[in-house]
Amino acid sequence: MRLNEVNYSDAQPVDGYGDGFFRIGGQVHQGAVLTSTAGTASWGGLGDAEPLLALAGQIDVLFIGTGPEIAHIPAELRKALEEAGLGVETMNSPAACRTYNVLLSEGRRIAMAALPV
C-alpha cells in the first residue's frame, strides 16, 4: 500500500471535533466555527449570514454543518447565499468536516461553517 502525505497549502484542516468544540490546524475552537483560506473564527450560527456572504467571490462551495444531525438551513439564508453566487451543501457537522478536509487537500476553493456536535 502506498501512502501519500497530504499538504494543505492555503488553509488549515479540521483535526478533530467533539462535544462543543472543533480542533482546526491544531487549535481548539469552542462553539460554532467558520473556516476557510482566510482563517478560522467563531461563527454566530444559522442566523449569522454576514461572514458567510463576505466569502462571495473567494470560494465556490460553502459546507454548512448543522450539528450532530442533518437539518435544513433557513430558506432565507440559503436564498441569500445562492444569490451571492455561493454553492451551498448542507450536512451534519462530522460529514462537513470530512468533506471539507478532502476537498481542501485537492486545493478547492471552499469554506465550512459548522455548528458543534
Automatic annotation (TrEMBL):
<dbReference type="InterPro" id="IPR036748">
    <property type="entry name" value="MTH938-like_sf"/>
</dbReference>
<dbReference type="Pfam" id="PF04430">
    <property type="entry name" value="DUF498"/>
</dbReference>
<protein>
    <submittedName>
        <fullName>Mth938-like domain-containing protein</fullName>
    </submittedName>
</protein>
<dbReference type="InterPro" id="IPR007523">
    <property type="entry name" value="NDUFAF3/AAMDC"/>
</dbReference>
